[in-house]
Design a protein that fits this description.
The protein is α/β, with parallel strands linked by helices. It is built from six helices and seven strands. The strands form two sheets. Strands 1-2-3-4-7 form a five-stranded parallel β-sheet, covered by helices on one side. Helix 2 runs parallel beside helix 3. The two termini are 23 Å apart.
Length: 211
C-alpha cells in the first residue's frame, strides 16, 4: 500500500537533472550534456556548513534542497547524514556535520525542517553508527550510543519530524542494524514516535542476505 516515490541523493544536494521541461541541471548536477565538466554550483558539504555554527543557514540550505526537489520532480532526498566524525579516516565524513553530537542534533533538526517546508520528504541517514567504511561493526554500550551516535537522529526525528530513515550497512557487534528490533522498533518508533518508513542502504554485505 505504499505509494510510489522518486528518491535521490543526497547530503550535498539532489544529484539529478531538472525535469525535461527545463534545459539545465540542478544545483549540484551540471546536466547530461556537461556531465564530465567541473560543476561550480555544488552546495557546501555538511562539514563545511557546520563550521559556520549557523542554524538558520542550515535551515535555508534545507529549504533550497526542497526547492530543488520540486524542480527535479523528486519525492525525497537522502539527507542529511547524521553520523559523527569518529575517525578522520572515514570516507563519509563529508556527509556528516561534525564530531559533536549536540551540534548534529541541532543542525539535523534544522535541515529536516527546511527540506520538508517545501513538501519534500527528508530521509536521514545512515541509521546508525556508520563510523567508517570497512569492517562496520562497532562495539559500544547504551550510554555511548545514546549520547553520541543516536543523538543527531533523535533531533531530526523528534524536532525536525523527518519522514524517512535510511539504515546503515553496519552492525552493532554481530547484529545487522537494519534488522535490529531494538533500533527500529523500540528506539525509533516507540521512544521517538517515528511513523514514517525505513529503507536499507545498498544491500551488498553478505550478512544482510541472511535476513
Amino acid at each position: 500500500g505504499y505509494p510510489g516515490t522518486i528518491e535521490n541523493d543526497g547530503p550535498s544536494g539532489i544529484v539529478t537533472n531538472y525535469s525535461s521541461k527545463y534545459d539545465h541541471g540542478s544545483t549540484i548536477f551540471p546536466g547530461i550534456e556537461n556531465y564530465s565538466s567541473i560543476n561550480p554550483r555544488m552546495y557546501p558539504s555538511q562539514s563545511l556548513i557546520a563550521s559556520a555554527f549557523n542554524r538558520n543557514l542550515v535551515y535555508e540550505q534545507g529549504r533550497m534542497f526542497g526547492e530543488d526537489s520540486l524542480y527535479t520532480e523528486q519525492t525525497e532526498i537522502w539527507a542529511p547524514g547524521l553520523n559523527l566524525h569518529r575517525t578522520p579516516y572515514s570516507g563519509r565524513n563529508f556527509e556528516y556535520y561534525s564530531e559533536d553530537s549536540q551540534m548534529t542534533y541541532i543542525l539535523g533538526a534544522e535541515m529536516a525542517s527546511g527540506i520538508q517546508s517545501n513538501g519534500a520528504i527528508c530521509a536521514v541517514k545512515h541509521f546508525a553508527f556508520n563510523d567508517y567504511e570497512t569492517n562496520r561493526s562497532p562495539f559500544l554500550n547504551e550510554q555511548t550510543a545514546r549520547e553520541n551516535g543516536l543523538r543527531g537522529f533523535e533531533g531530526a526525528i523528534t524536532v525536525g519530524h523527518a519522514r524517512n530513515v535510511m539504515t546503515t550497512l553496519a552492525r552493532i557487534g554481530v547484529d545487522w542494524i537494519g534488522q535490529d528490533s531494538e533500533m527500529q522498533d523500540s528506539i525509533l518508533r516507540a521512544e521517538w514516535g517515528f511513523d514514517g518508513y525505513v529503507v536499507t542502504d545498498n544491500a551488498i554485505q553478505p550478512y544482510m542476505k541472511e535476513y
